[in-house]
Amino acid sequence: MWFTGAVLIVGIAAGCSSPPQQQRQPGALVPGTAEVTINDQKLGSFQSVDCTPAGHTMTITAGNTNSGTTVVVSNGDKQTVTAVTITDLGGFTGSYTQGLAGDAAVSMTGATYSITGTADGFNTDNPSFRSNSTFAIKVAC
C-alpha cells in the first residue's frame, strides 16, 4: 500500500512541474523586440516591432513614423537587404537602397534578423549637409 502512495506523490509532483523554458540561441532577441545602433551609439531596445511577410520579402518596422526604422529583406535563394529607412534615430535620418550608394548585409540567428551597413542621409543637428552613417539593427520577428 505504501508503494501506491509513493507513486501517487511522484505523479503529482511531476504533473505540477513547470514546462521547460524555450531556450534562445546566443545573439537572438525576444520575439517582437529590436535593438538599433547608429554610428556605434546603442539606442536601446524597441518594443514596437512589426514583421510583415509577402512572398519571399519580409518588411520589418521598429519604432514609429517619428523615430524608427523600416527594413526590407529578401528571403529568396540568397538573403539580401533591399532597403533600409532610418528616421531620426541617434540624430540621423537616412536610407540604404540595394544597388545605390551604401551597403548592407543580413544574417539570422533563429528568428532574429541582424542587419548591418551604411546609409546616406543627414544629421538632424545639421540637415543642410549630407552624411553617411553606419547602422546595426537586430530584430526578432
UniProtKB/TrEMBL annotation:
Superkingdom of the organism of origin: Bacteria
Keyword vocabulary terms for this entry: Cell membrane, Lipoprotein, Membrane, Palmitate, Signal
Pfam families reported in the protein's UniProt record: Myco_19_kDa
InterPro entries to which the protein is assigned, alphabetical: LpqH
Name of the protein described by the UniProt record: Lipoprotein LpqH
Species the sequence originates in: Mycolicibacterium komossense
